[in-house]
Structure formats: C-alpha cells, structure tokens
Amino acid sequence: MNTKLFFKIAWLLVVSLLFYIIFVIFFLSPKINDYLSNIELEISKVQFEKIAQAINIESKKYEDENQLIEQVKLIVSSLTLGKAGYIFIFDANGKVIFDPSGEFASKSLEDVIIPGVGKKYLYEEMKAHALAKEALEYEWNRIYDPYNYTYKKISWIVHNDKFNWYIASNVYKEDFHNFTEGVNSLILNISILLFMVLTLIGIFITVKIVSPINKMLMEVNKINVVSNLDKTDKTTKSKDEIVYLSKQFNTLVDEVETNRKNIEIQERVFKDRLYIDSLTGIKNRVALEDDIKECEFVSIVLIDIDSFADINELYGFKVGDLVLIETAKILNNFSEKFGVTAYRLYGNVFALVNTTMMNFSKYDEFINESLKVFKENALFIEEENLELYIHVTLGISIAQEEPIKTATIALNRAKKSSKRFFVYNTEIDTKESIKNSIHWREKIKEAINNDCVVPFFQPIYNTENQIIKYEALMRIKDFDMHGKEIYHLPYLFLDTAFKTKQYISLANQMLGKIIDLLPTTQKYISFNISFEDIMNNDFIDMLDKYIDKLDIENKAKLVFEILESNSIGEYQILDDFVSKYRKQGIKIAIDDFGTGYSNFAHILKIRPDFIKIDGSLIKNITTDKNSSEMVKSIIDFSKALNIKITAEFVHNAEVYKRLLDLKVDEFQGFYLGRPEATIE
C-alpha cells in the first residue's frame, strides 16, 4: 500500500478523534446532562402539583384544620421530590404548619431572610410567587455546609384557599444534576466507545481491503509491462487475490458481529445501573416497581432504621453509608432463607418483598424473624472497628391494590404510634389476616376449577304478593367437615377475589348460568353491576359474549342493577353503558339508592326503569323519622318520573305494611322470601 496514503488516513482518523472527544466533552455531554436534569425537574414539578391538588381537594372535606393536618402528614411524610426534596406547608403569617424535614419545624418563616438579596423574607417571596404562579429560585445552605449559602434552590408554591395555607416544595437543583450524572457518564463512555469501534473498523477496512486491492492494481500494471507473461499464470494469480479478499471480508463480518455483542453488553450494564442501588448493590425502587407490575399477589415489608439521623450526626456520613451497606448484606442473606427479595427504596428505608403467597406458618415465621434479625445481628463496621446494634420499624402491606403506597402508610402509622410494626388496613392479629387471605384464595380457585360458583335467586314481589322478578346473588358451593353441602356468601370472599384478580372468573361462571336459565322462566332476572365492572374492558367483553347469545324476548327479561355509590365519577361512561344495553331491550335499575351519595340530577338524565331503595333506610323506616322522610322523598321523586320503586330488606310485617301505605311498587326481603338455588 502507498505509504503516503496510509499516513494521510491515519492523520485523518487522529484529528477526527480529537474533534469528536472535544465535541462530546464540551458540547454534547453538558447538553445531555441539562436535558436529563430538566426532565427530572419537570417530573418532580408535576409530582408536586398532583400532591398539592390532592391536598386542596382533601381540604374541602374538613372544617377543622387539625384533622386535615393529620391526613396531610400521611400524604407528605414519605414523599420525596427527586433525590431528597420534600414538601412543607406554612400559613399566611409565615407559621410552619408541617415540615417533614424538621428544618423549619421549630421556627416561623416570618424571621427567615433570603441571604445575598437584601432584606427579603422567604415566606413573603413565596407568597408573591404563588400569586404569580411562578417558581421561586434562591440560594441556600446545606445541613452539612451550614455557612455556605451558594446552593441553588427552587420552590414551587400553591395556595390553599380553604385554610389560607401555602404548599411549597424544597428542592436543590444540584440534586438533579447529581441524579443524572451517572447516566450522562455512561452515555459519554458509550459515545467514545462507539467512535473507537468505528475507527477500528475504518482502520481494518483500510488495511484488509484497500491494501489488497492496491496490490492487485500493482500486479495488473506489472502484467501490462511484461508482455511475454503467460496468460495462464495471470488467471491463476487473479483467482488467488479474489480468494484472499473473500477471506478478509469474512473476517470483517466476524468483527462486526463481535462489536454488536459488545454493544449489547453495554446495554445490559446500563440496565443494571438503572435497577441497582449504587451504594448497597441491591435492587432499588425502580426495580421493585417493575418487578411487581404484573404480580397477582404482593406482600411488602418496609424496614426503616430507627434514629438513622443520629448515627450520621454522631459518627459522620461515611459511617452512615457503611451502616446502610451492612444492613443490605444482612437483608440479602435473610431474604434467601425465606425466598423473598431485598430492595433499598430510599435513604434508610429497605423492603422485603414476597410475590408467591407463602404458606401461613412460613409467613408468620418470616414476620417474626424480620423483627428480630437486627436485634440478634450487630453491624460491624470494619473500617472504623465499630460494632453497632440498630432498631427497626416495619410497615407491612399484604395483597393491597397499591402495595408500596399502603406499606408506606403502615410504616408512618407504626412510627407515629411507637409500634414495632403496623399492618395496613387492619388491626387484627397478622396471623389471622394472612390465614384468611390464603384460605379464600384457595377456596375461590377450587370453586372456579370445580364449577362451584352458583347463582341463588331472591324473589321480588308486587303489591298483589306475586313473584314478578328474581335477583341473582353469587354463592360458592362447598362442603363442611361432615360432608354436608354449604354455600358461602359474597361478603366472605369478594374482597379477596378482587385483590387476587379472580373476580372475572367468578363473574364468568355466574353470568353463564344466569343466561342459560333465562329462557326457562317468564320472570325478570336482575343482577348487580358495579361502576368498576363498567370501567373494566374484560368484564364488558365477557358480558357482551353472553348477551349476544340471547334473542330479543330473553334480553327483555334481563335487569342490570347498577350499584349507586360515590365511586361513580365518569357519568358519560355510565350514560353510554345504559344507552348501549337499553337499545337491546335490557332494563336498568339503580341499586342501593339513598346511600350517602345519590345524584338525583343524573337520575333525571338516564331515567332508569327501577330504583331500589337501600336496605339501611328501609329497615329503620318504622323507627327513624329521617329514614321515613328520605324514603317518602325518593318515592315522590320516582313517581313523578314514572320510575318503579323496589324496597329491599323487608324483614317484618310492620315494615311491609308501611311500604304498602307509601305506594311502593315492588318488595324484596327475608319476610317475603329467602334466596334459593331454584326459581319458578
């Protein structure tokens, strides 16, 4: 190969590399860092606005601000904005209402001046920026650097009109740069690596392909000069050169494949950095959220190291970090024993997560051992020759809709009440809670597999004491210890069915049997549909599958009883549902009407065929004046709209007679007829 050409190419590659490195370091890298930081900052801003909105909505329910403060503490205490930001609240006079960090808890903001900008009071500036709906940026100190007021801080502020509060964020901009510098560094490394790969490929092509071609051209020139060269020798030589080029090309393809595999390895490294806590080496919160996304059962035990701030203050942040590392090691070893997974969520809070619903006795042992693991194992900090015993507080969530959130609430309650642990949404013994969940999950599974989900039918009578309708009620058929057939009521198993995602399978068997039975009777058959069912696409698909099997005559005998409750939020969706099935001849009833929240205005719009007055009003109609007046109002309202009234929970003759006097159209209750497995 021509030596001058080789050196030209080499110099071109070197100069290109230098320009590329300068471009990445001084232009691309800062741009990426700023872009990622701004994204994280915007995410935290949106998170803050949602929390502020939630507090403002919650405040409308309370007249006493002290009650609201307790609710706010549950919402705000465990929340972090970005790496370590938080939310605090103060009133119009600068008095701090709530500050989870403790920075302003013992102060009034009325005396706090922003340094370096004249005599500007912090709370006055925050109020002004809340009015202007702008972020407040100022310089502040750090806990570990109390005399240095050069750290950039940003506060978003929202005003609460009800109690004249100001909800403010407390975030350091620097935290977002630190938060993204790991990703930024990785991108920089990958960029340089890619350039190096491309450079090597260029050199390879130059040496392995250009050089042989150049040699071939030289040989051709020689052939032209030497006129007496034998033609056979020329052909053989050309073939040899082609074979040589073919081998070099195959080698090049192999190199490209190797480089592709190297890039895949780098991608895996990037993913590890995303899911692994950099300090302790165990999985982080991002990994936890991803791991439990599709799990049917999730149990989370949050572990909070008590008085961790005292360890940092007494021994320094270095020892504090070493304590976290040793804690992670102990939890990792402990998790292997019980088949759970250890995570570090944030700061001094760890989690042990179970997604397999271990048996009762093992789970009981797991909870007890979780409480004792640090009591029996001292942390030895080798670098400082220091032995520490730590105490922990546990927040436990078992089979909840939002496991991380509910475990955090449980942890906050445990700390507030000075308990060693707290189980979310129950104050009964943990053993009974776990045992009950496991018991009904298995019962439901067994019932589905053995086709033991059955409808019972409670008769509904008219004023002539004739059965005109049946309400279908779900039961699970089972056998007691003596082999006698028994039926379980829904209140025992429905909550578990929703939590374990078995409800659709239950509803599928129930609906199938109702639809099969409908052509055999001349009576109406009604069944309950909740707003959650209407919002569930899987439920609607299943419902349509069965409805499509019916002719017009049998569709006209179906009644959908839509449960009236404050969970109805999207009335347009409800309107569309009613319209869709009413066009097919199906009747619509509003069930449990009068329970706490009843939208009379919307009843005017959807005009149901029936209104069922809630049993809590009916059962007290002869003893409670308020219940009696409420029932009369519902009856008058319905009669005016030509809507038939059904009274449920008719449990004695006195109530039945009173309802007859009030001109109720239909009656349902144990006084008239109990649910049975058969119908007329």
Automatic annotation (TrEMBL):
UniProt KW keywords: Membrane, Transmembrane, Transmembrane helix
Domain of life assignment: Bacteria
Residue intervals passing through the bilayer: 6-28, 186-207
One of the Pfam families matching this protein, by short name: EAL
Residues annotated as domain EAL: 437-680
Domain GGDEF span(s) in chain numbering: 296-427
PANTHER family: CYCLIC DI-GMP PHOSPHODIESTERASE PDEF, SIGNALING PROTEIN YKOW
NCBIfam families associated with the record: GGDEF
Name of the protein: EAL domain-containing protein
